Amino acid sequence: MRRGSLTRESLTLIKSRLKKELQGLIRSYKSIELNNDSFVVAWVRRMTLYKRPHFVARLIEEGEFNDVVFILGGKSHPMDKDGLIYMKKFRELHRKYKNVVYIHDYDVIKAKTILKGIDVLLFTPFPPGWEASGTSFMKAAINGVPSIASRDGAAVELITDGVNGWLFGSDIRELIDFANDPRGKEIDEREYTEFKAKFSQVYDYITRIRSVST
User: Fold this and answer.
1) Which residues are CB-neighbours of 78 under 8 A, at least 6 positions away?
2) Which residues, including other chains, have CB under 8 Å from residue 115's CB and lie 6 or more apart?
3) Is 40:99 a contact under the CB 8 Å cutoff?
4) How far are the Cα atoms of 89, 96, 131, 133, 146 from residue 85, in angstroms, in the given order?
5) DSSP 31
6) Distance in angstroms (rounded) separating the CA atoms of residues 13 and 21
7) Which residues on neighbouring strands pair with residue 27, listed in sequence order?
8) Half-sphere exposure (CA, 13 Å, Cβ side) for 122?
């Protein structure tokens, strides 16, 4: 593409092509139809508890966004008990909800297709310091895909809320053992509420923009 030739119209055409490629991948797992108006989000990464897979699982099960297509992906370390539990949980969500697909064998090749074709990435690790940096939101960003991210890892340095993505949660500077410290559950609950509110805000924004463009 020539320099300066990228416009809103050409970006729309590119995104439409990438979403068709994503459709091809999804069809190998589940019959879900995507179109240019489909709002597609993904939670895809290594499955472990500090990355908070329960945030997206809870968002799905509360049932307020049944028109959103959720792509879940990730594998656990074979000795990570919590990670294995959430692999099973994601599979249950895949079976139960028509708008959910679980990519159980998520890998680099599939990541390339997913992170180009989705509308928003969900990046939800517990703050601070559990995620040394985080790269999934970076990979999404270089493909023009913004993230809804917690304030952990490099997200606090690279994402400006409301400009190139959205941030939620507190700017905590103390490392907390979230699994054993009573404060962990309190922070988790508060941040889930903020995460859901931010997701709702982004959903309303994208839905409004697409209704105007059509």
Assistant:
1) 84
2) 42, 44, 121, 136, 139, 140, 143, 145
3) no
4) 6, 17, 20, 25, 28
5) -
6) 13
7) none
8) 29
- The terminus-to-terminus CA distance of the chain in angstroms comes to 26
Which tokens belong to 194? Answer: 């903020």
Q: How far apart are CA 102 and CA 29, in angstroms?
A: 8
More confident residue, 11 or 25: 25
Helix (H, G, I), strand (E, B), or coil: what is residue 32?
coil
Please state the pTM of the whole predicted model.
0.90
**DSSP-assigned beta bridge partners for residue 168:** 150
Residues with Cβ within 8 Å of residue 57, at least 6 apart in sequence: 86, 89, 90, 93
Supply the CATH classification number for the domain 8-213.
3.40.50.2000
The residue length of the chain stands at 214
Question: So where are the chain's domains?
Answer: 8-213
74-83 exposure pattern, b = at least 16 Cβ within 10 A, e = fewer = bbbeeebeeb
CA separation, residue 3 to residues 8, 14, 35, 99 (Å):
14, 16, 29, 38
pLDDT at 93: 98
What band does 51 get if pLDDT is binned at 50, 70 and 90?
very high
Nearest to 197, CA basis, from 170, 175, 173, 167: 167
**With contact defined as beta carbons under 8 Å apart, do 104 and 91 qualify?**
yes
106 touches 72 (CB < 8 A) = no
- Model pLDDT for residues 31-40, shown as the tens digit of each residue: 998 887 889 9
